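name: query_chain
kind: protein
chains: 1
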Amino acid sequence: MGKIDDDKVINGEGYQLTTLDKAVGLARANSVWPLPFATSCCGIEFMATMGSAYDMSRFGMERLSFSPRQADLLIVAGTISKKLGPILKQVYEQMAEPKWVLSVGACASSGGIFDTYSVLQGIDRIIPVDVYVPGCPPRPEQIIDGVMNIHKLVKKESLRRRYSSEYKDLMSDFKIEIKDNGAK
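structure:
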């Protein structure tokens, strides 16, 4: 199951005990289904990342999901115009919990060189972002590094974090309603 740095873990011949959070985190991290939201040159670099030279399937991500209801990771790559912003937010809201966002490139992260009235100056103005990948456009190695950082977040995330008051406050800052399903 990988290296566990917890002294309270009991190891023995042929078995290993761990916490449910760590086991679920490991399973989630190795089965992330990305939804690419690519609009320009960063999207081309993302396509190169999915090719055989870089092979994202090594990380359990060979199945791209083009349906938000079946995706865990939203990869926003490229320039997002202000007209496209509400569509991006709707796609994010349609994704099931737990969900993560990877902002790829300078345009998605900060508007890039396009400091104009029509370009959104960073997607973090409308949806929360977990990891930023810098570059214009970023190399496939940088995108893979961003994905690896997402995997680190997924492995360490508590099962209860999504139901915390801090998470609900964060979502309310973005005007995103969280439906409580009775989890405590």
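note: Helices lie at 20-29, 41-49, 85-94, 105-110, 140-156, 165-173.
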